[in-house]
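Run log // design_07
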C-alpha cells in the first residue's frame, strides 16, 4: 500500500515478522524456551498476534493514519533508525508501504534480517548502534509530542511506543549475550570492557564475596584443630609447636657427649618450660629411649652419658621425670624382648644399669629385674644378666648383699631345673655363656671382682650431679612389675602408694612376730586410722603390737626404713597417742627412747608438734588434752624443751583463741604437777639460751594471766618457775 510515495507494511507483513521473531527467539506459550536471561520480563505486556491484527483493523476503520516503522539493514548488519531517510514515517499511503516491502524483499527471503536484528557482528559499532537506537527513540518521542500537521501525519499510539522500546531492548540484550558468550545464564569467555555495560553492583559484589572467601579460607588453613590433653596421645598428628620442640631435642641429643652434658641439660630443661612440663617430659623421654634402643651398638660410655643427662633432667624437672622414663624404658625392653632384638636389648639394659649407677633408681628395682630374668633364664636372659653384672654388679653387692644372695639362690635353682629337665643333663642354652655367667656371679659373691675405676669425665659428672642434689630424686621401693602395670594411678613412683599385698603382709607379720590373720586385722585397723602408706602401716603395727616400749623400739629398728621414711615413726606415734580414749604414757616412753637414740627424731617431733599447734582451733577437746599431757611428759623427760612454744605468740592476746588458751593452760598445769626439782630444771633449761627471751616473757605473761588465777598451789609453782627463768647461770638441781 502506497501513501505519499512510501511503502507502509500491512498487517500480514507485521504478522510474518512477529512469527519469524517468535521462531527465532524460541517462544513457547509466551515464554522464552532458552535459559531465563530476563527476556520474559522485557516481553511482558506485549499483545499477541491476534490482538495485533484486531488493532490494525480498528485503525483502518477509524480512518486515522498509523505510525509505521521499517527495518533496514546497513552495511554492518545492525539496526539503524534514520528520520532523514524516511525509514520511520508516519504516512497513510499504501503505495509507500508496498515500496518499503519491496525494497527489503530479497533480504527477508534470505532470512538475514532477523539474525542481524538480534546480534551484531562487529565490536566497534556496539556503542554507536546503541546510541543510534536510543537516539531514534528519543526523536520519535519528540515527534509524537508535536501537534499533527495537515498532511495526514499522526501521533504514535501507546502500543507502537512499547513495541519500539521492546525491540530495542531485545536487540541490545542479544548483542551483549553474543558478545559476552553467555550460555545457560553464565559467562563462558573472559571478561572484557563491555562487561561494564552491565550492572556494576553485581560485579563488585562478586569480587567482594570472592575476596572474603579467600581470606576466610586462608585464615582457617592456618588454624589447627584443638585436641584435648587427654586425647593428644591417641591422635596421630602432632602440633607444629611440639614437632619443632621434638626436632630441637633430637638435635641436641645427637650432640650429647661427656664434655657438654651440663650445657645441653640446662638448654633442654629451659626448652621444656616453653611447652609445659608434661608434654616436654614425654617428648624428651621418647627421644632418649628411641636414641638408645634404635641406635647402633652402644657401649658403656654411650649409656653413661645418656644416664647422666636423665639424672640432670630429673634434678631440674622433678622425680616424676625419672619415673616416667623408667616406665617407658621397661615397656621398650619388653617390646624388644618379644622381637628377640639382642642389640636393642643390650642398649636398653646398659641405660638401665647406669641409671642405677647415677642414682635414679635403687638396687631394689635392679634386683627385681635380675630375679625376673633368672626365673626364665633363656639365652637372651643370660646375655642381659651378664650385661647388668659387668656394668654394676659390684655396686649391687655393696648396696644390698642380701638382695645379691637371694638373686644367686634363684639363679642356681633355675639352673638345676634346666639341667634336670634335659635328657643328657645339659641345658638347652649355650653352655659356655651359662658357665661364664655363673663364674661372674661367684666372683661378685666372693668379692673377687674389682669395681671399675671412674674416669675423669665420670668423676666430674658425679660431682655435678651431687651439686644438683641427685639424692633427692632417688626412687625407692619400685618393682619391675609396677613399671609394666597399666592400671597404676596417681604418683605411683612414690613409695607406699600401693595397697599392701600378701607378700607385704608376710613381711609385716615376720617383723611383729604375729600370725598372718592377726596381722591382716592390724593392717585393717591401720587403714582406718589414716595410715595410707606401707611404711606407716608397718610402723603402726609395730607400735600397737609391742609388748613394751623396749620391744616396740627394737622392732622399729628392724624395719630398716630407707631414706627419710624413718620420719614417719614419730608422726605415727603421736597420732596413735592422740587417738586413744585415755592418755597412755607408753607413747611418751617410746618417743623418749627414740629421741635419745637419734637426734633426728627430736627435730621430727618438734615439727610434728608445730603442725598440731596450727590445728588447735579445730581440734577436739580430748585430742587437745592428750597433746598437752604428751608435751608435758616429753618436756619433763628433757627430750624437748619449752622452746618448742616459740611457734606460738603467747604475749599476743588477740591471737589466742579460747581453744588455744585452754590447751596451753592444761599444758602448764600438767607441768606444775611434777616435783619442784623437775619444774626448776624445765624452766632453767629455757633460761640459759638468750635467744628464748621472747618465749620466756610470753610464758610468764600467760601463766600469770590464765593459769594461776588465785590458786595457791599453782602460785607456789609459778614462783619457782619465775626464779628458774631468772637463772641465767643454768644451775640445775
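design_07 sequence
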Amino acid at each position: 500500500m502506497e501513501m505519499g510515495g512510501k511503502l507502509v507494511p500491512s498487517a500480514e507483513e507485521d504478522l510474518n515478522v512477529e512469527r519469524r521473531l517468535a521462531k527465532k527467539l524460541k517462544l513457547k506459550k509466551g515464554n522464552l524456551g532458552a535459559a531465563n536471561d530476563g527476556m520474559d520480563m522485557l516481553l511482558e505486556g506485549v499483545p499477541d498476534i491476534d490482538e495485533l491484527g484486531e488493532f490494525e483493523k480498528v485503525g483502518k476503520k477509524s480512518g486515522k493514519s498509523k505510525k509505521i516503522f521499517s527495518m533496514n539493514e546497513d552495511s554492518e548488519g545492525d539496526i539503524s533508525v534514520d528520520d532523514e531517510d524516511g525509514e520511520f514515517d508516519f504516512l497513510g499511503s499504501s503505495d509507500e508501504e508496498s515500496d518499503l516491502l519491496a525494497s527489503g524483499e530479497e533480504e527477508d527471503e534470505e532470512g538475514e534480517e532477523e539474525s542481524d536484528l538480534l546480534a551484531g557482528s562487529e565490536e566497534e559499532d556496539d556503542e554507536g548502534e546503541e546510541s543510534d537506537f536510543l537516539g531514534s527513540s528519543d526523536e520519535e518521542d519528540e515527534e509524537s509530542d508535536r501537534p499533527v500537521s495537515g498532511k495526514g501525519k499522526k501521533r504514535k499510539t501507546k502500543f507502537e511506543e512499547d513495541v519500539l522500546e521492546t525491540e530495542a531492548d531485545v536487540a541490545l540484550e542479544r548483542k551483549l549475550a553474543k558478545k559476552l558468550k553467555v550460555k545457560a545464564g553464565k559467562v563462558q569467555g573472559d571478561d572484557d570492557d563491555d562487561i561494564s555495560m552491565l550492572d556494576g553492583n553485581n560485579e563488585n559484589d562478586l569480587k567482594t564475596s570472592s575476596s572474603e572467601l579467600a581470606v576466610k579460607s586462608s585464615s582457617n588453613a592456618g588454624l589447627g584443630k584443638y585436641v584435648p590433653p587427654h586425647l593428644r596421645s591417641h591422635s596421630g598428628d602432632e602440633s607444629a609447636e611440639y614437632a619443632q620442640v621434638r626436632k630441637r631435642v633430637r638435635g641436641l641429643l645427637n650432640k650429647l657427649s661427656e664434655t657438654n652434658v651440663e650445657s645441653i641439660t640446662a638448654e633442654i630443661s629451659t626448652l621444656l618450660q616453653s611447652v609445659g612440663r608434661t608434654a616436654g617430659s614425654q617428648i624428651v623421654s621418647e627421644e632418649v629411649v628411641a636414641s638408645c634402643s634404635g641406635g647402633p651398638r652402644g657401649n658403656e660410655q654411650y649409656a653413661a652419658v645418656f644416664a647422666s643427662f636423665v639424672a640432670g633432667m630429673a634434678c631440674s624437672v622433678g622425680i616424676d621425670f625419672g619415673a616416667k622414663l623408667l616406665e617407658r624404658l621397661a615397656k621398650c625392653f619388653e617390646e624388644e624382648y618379644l622381637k628377640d632384638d639382642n642389640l636393642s636389648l643390650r642398649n636398653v639394659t646398659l641405660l638401665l644399669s647406669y641409671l642405677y649407677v647415677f642414682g635414679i633408681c635403687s638396687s631394689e628395682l635392679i634386683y627385681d629385674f635380675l630375679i625376673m630374668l633368672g626365673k626364665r633364664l633363656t639365652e637372651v636372659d643370660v646375655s642381659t644378666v651378664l650385661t647388668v653384672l659387668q656394668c654394676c654388679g659390684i655396686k649391687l653387692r655393696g648396696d644390698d648383699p642380701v638382695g645379691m644372695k637371694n638373686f644367686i639362690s634363684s639363679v642356681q635353682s633355675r639352673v638345676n631345673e634346666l639341667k634336670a629337665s634335659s635328657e643328657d643333663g645339659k641345658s638347652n642354652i649355650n653352655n659356655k655363656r651359662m658357665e661364664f655367667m655363673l663364674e661372674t656371679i661367684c666372683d661378685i659373691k666372693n668379692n673377687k671382682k674389682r669395681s671399675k675405676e671412674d674416669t675423669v669425665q665420670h668423676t666430674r659428672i658425679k660431682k655435678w650431679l651431687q651439686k644438683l642434689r641427685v639424692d633427692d630424686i632417688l626412687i625407692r621401693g619400685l618393682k619391675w612389675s609396677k613399671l609394666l602395670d597399666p592400671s597404676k594411678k596417681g604418683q605411683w613412683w612414690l613409695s607406699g602408694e600401693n595397697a599392701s599385698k600378701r607378700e607385704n603382709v608376710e613381711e609385716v607379720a615376720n617383723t611383729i612376730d604375729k600370725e598372718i590373720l592377726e596381722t591382716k586385722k592390724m593392717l585393717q585397723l591401720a587403714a582406718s586410722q589414716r595410715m595410707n602408706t606401707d611404711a606407716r602401716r608397718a610402723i603402726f603395727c609395730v607400735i600397737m603390737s609391742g609388748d613394751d616400749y623396749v620391744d616396740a623400739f627394737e622392732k622399729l629398728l628392724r624395719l630398716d626404713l630407707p631414706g627419710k621414711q624413718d620420719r614417719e615413726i614419730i608422726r605415727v606415734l603421736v597420732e596413735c597417742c592422740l587417738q586413744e580414749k585415755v592418755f597412755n604414757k607408753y607413747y611418751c616412753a617410746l618417743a623418749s627412747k627414740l629421741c635419745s637414740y637419734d637426734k633426728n627424731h627430736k627435730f621430727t617431733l618438734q615439727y610434728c608438734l608445730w603442725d598440731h599447734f596450727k590445728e588447735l582451733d579445730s581440734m577436739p577437746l580430748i585430742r587437745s588434752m592428750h597433746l598437752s599431757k604428751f608435751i608435758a611428759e616429753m618436756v619433763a623427760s628433757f627430750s624437748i624443751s619449752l622452746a618448742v612454744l616459740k611457734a606460738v605468740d603467747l604475749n599476743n592476746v588477740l591471737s589466742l583463741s579460747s581453744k588455744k588458751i585452754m590447751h596451753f593452760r592444761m599444758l602448764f598445769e600438767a607441768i606444775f604437777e611434777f616435783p619442784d626439782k623437775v619444774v626448776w630444771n624445765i624452766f632453767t633449761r629455757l633460761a640459759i639460751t638468750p635467744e628464748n627471751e621472747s618465749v620466756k616473757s610470753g610464758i610468764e605473761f600467760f601463766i600469770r594471766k590464765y593459769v594461776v588465777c588465785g590458786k595457791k598451789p599453782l602460785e607456789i609453782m609459778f614462783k619457782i618457775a619465775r626464779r628458774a627463768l631468772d637463772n641465767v647461770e643454768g644451775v640445775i638441781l
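The chain has a mean pLDDT of 74.
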